[in-house]
Amino acid sequence: MTNDYTIDASFVGQTIGPTNGAIVSLRMSAPPVYETPSFDAGAQSWVSGCFTLRGTGDCHDAVSISPQSNGGAFNQPGAVMIHGGSVAYSGALVVVAVPKNSVWSLTLSDAPSPQRLAHELLGG
Predict the structure, then answer these.
(1) Which residues make Cβ contacts (< 8 Å) with residue 113, sequence separation at least 6?
(2) Phi and psi torsions of 17, nearest 5°
(3) Which pLDDT value is given to residue 98?
(4) Mean pLDDT, range 59-80, rounded to an integer
(5) Which residues contact 103 (CB under 8 A, 6 or more apart)?
(6) Other C-beta atoms within 10 Å of 110: how many?
(7) Computed from CA positions of residues 42, 103, 90, 116, in that sequence, does the dihedral angle turn out positive or negative?
(8) Do 119 and 30 form a contact (C-beta atoms < 8 A)?
(9) Is residue 124 pLDDT above 80, yes or no?
């Protein structure tokens, strides 16, 4: 089963489901207005100027996209960031940061990723 979301800055701080899922598609529908990225050292995460998602059970961001690392693609409406693969996360998915004025199309799946299945089968 998949869940589709349209994400903008109003989602910051919210958790979205399913839990223990995977990001299977991420596309930027509207580009941001540039803002200086800000990093929270305590949380080890970008909190502004970047698009950041993190699982509540993860130590690292599932996705963190910044203008600096993605160059021109970050400023193109319709830019595809994830497609045809998946990024697994643990727990619920938290929207940590969304750049000003940007809009994102996100598809999440509740199907376990092959990496998660292998980890569970090996007793992890």
Answers:
(1) 22, 86, 88
(2) -115, 180
(3) 92
(4) 69
(5) 6, 7, 8, 28, 29, 30
(6) 13
(7) negative
(8) no
(9) no
pLDDT in tens, 42-57: 877 777 888 899 999 9
CB 49 within 8 A of CB 119: no
CA distances, 98 to each of 12, 50, 52 (Å): 7, 6, 7
Percentage above 90 pLDDT, the chain: 36
**Mean pLDDT, residues 1-28:** 92
Provide the residue type at 109 as one letter: S
Q: Which residue has the tokens 């809009």?
A: 103
> What are the start-end ranges of the H helices in 7-123?
67-70, 114-121
What single letter denotes the amino acid at residue 13? G
CA-wise closest residue to 53 among 92, 4, 19: 92
Which tokens is 64 given?
């963190």
Report phi then psi at 22, rounded to 5.
-145, 145
Tell me: pLDDT of 5 over 80. Answer: yes
d(CA 124, CA 122): 6
